[in-house]
Write a structure and sequence with these properties.
Layout: E1 3-10, E2 27-31, E3 34-40, H1 50-64, E4 70-71, E5 77-78, H2 81-89, H3 93-103, E6 106-115, H4 117-127, H5 129-134, H6 140-169, E7 175-179, E8 186-195, H7 199-213, E9 217-225
Antiparallel strand pairs: 1-3, 1-4, 1-5, 2-3, 6-8, 6-9, 7-8
C-alpha cells in the first residue's frame, strides 16, 4: 500500500498519538537524522478530495505542535518505506536538515489586506480632482474614464500601502513571502515567518499596520500554522 508523506521532522522526537485526535495517528519512517511522517493510503485516496486534504492538514498541524515540521504539499506519495528513504530522505538530507534548523521555533502567519470599497473610493476621489468631477456623471464615456482612474488610483495606493505594511513588519519577522494579488480590491497577501519569542512584537506591528492603513484597508490575519510557505516544493 502506498505511503502518503505529510512532512519531515527530526528523527529524535516520538509523536504523541493522542495529539492527532480523531485522525488516525501517522507513523514515522526514519532515515539518518530525519524521519518522514507517513500514513498508509489506498490508491483511490491519492486523488485530491476535501476529506483527504483536510486529513493531511490535520496531521501536519498536530505534528507541528510537538516538533519542527517541514510540511509536504498534499499528494506526495511513495510506494514503500525503503523507496522513501532511498529516493527522498537520503538525497535531500542536507537541505531538509537546513530547513528544519531555519524553521525551528517559528510559525507561519498569513496577513491579507483588502480595500474597503467606499472608503477607498473616497480616498481616490480626494486625491484625483478629475475623478471627483467625473463621479456621479451618467454618460458612458464619463463612467469608463472614472473606472479607469479609480483602478489607477488603487494601483498607486496599493504599492504605497504594501510598502508601509512591509516596513512595519520586516523588523519583527524572520522571512516574508509576498503573493501577487488579482482582485482589484486586494492590497496584499503576505506569508510571514514569526519566531515564537517575537510574537508579542509581531502582534503590535500588525496592530500598527491596521491603524495606519485604516479606514481604507481592512486586515485579515490567519495563524499560527505550520510554515507551508517557507519550504521548497517536493514531489
Amino acid at each position: 500500500m502506498p505511503l502518503l508523506v505529510h512532512g519531515v521532522v527530526p528523527r529524535t522526537p516520538r509523536l504523541d498519538d493522542a495529539a492527532f485526535g480523531d485522525v488516525d495517528a501517522p507513523t514515522l519512517v526514519a532515515g539518518g537524522d530525519l524521519a518522514a511522517i507517513v500514513t498508509e493510503v489506498a490508491e483511490d485516496d491519492l486523488v485530491p478530495s476535501r476529506r483527504m486534504l483536510l486529513r493531511h492538514t490535520q496531521v501536519v498541524e498536530a505534528a507541528a505542535k510537538q516538533t519542527t515540521v517541514v510540511p509536504m504539499r498534499f499528494g506526495v506519495a511513495v510506494p514503500s518505506a525503503d523507496r522513501l528513504v532511498e529516493d527522498f530522505l537520503a538525497p535531500a538530507a542536507e537541505r531538509l536538515t537546513a530547513t528544519i534548523q531555519r524553521l525551528q521555533g517559528h510559525q507561519e502567519y498569513r496577513l491579507r489586506g483588502r480595500y474597503d470599497e467606499p472608503a477607498a473610493l473616497r480616498a481616490v476621489l480626494a486625491a484625483d480632482p478629475r475623478a471627483a468631477r467625473l463621479h456621479g456623471r451618467r454618460g458612458m464615456d464619463a463612467k469608463l474614464e472614472l473606472g479607469e482612474r479609480v483602478v489607477q488610483g488603487l494601483e498607486r495606493r496599493r504599492a504605497t500601502d504594501t510598502a508601509r505594511a512591509l516596513e512595519a513588519l520586516r523588523p519583527v519577522v524572520s522571512d516574508v513571502v509576498e503573493t501577487a494579488v488579482t482582485d482589484p480590491l486586494d492590497v496584499f497577501a503576505l506569508s510571514l515567518l514569526v519566531a515564537s519569542d517575537a510574537e508579542d512584537g509581531f502582534d503590535r506591528a500588525v496592530e500598527s499596520v491596521a491603524e495606519s492603513l485604516a479606514p481604507e484597508v481592512k486586515l485579515e490575519l490567519v495563524g499560527p500554522m505550520p510554515a507551508y510557505s517557507f519550504v521548497e516544493e517536493e514531489g
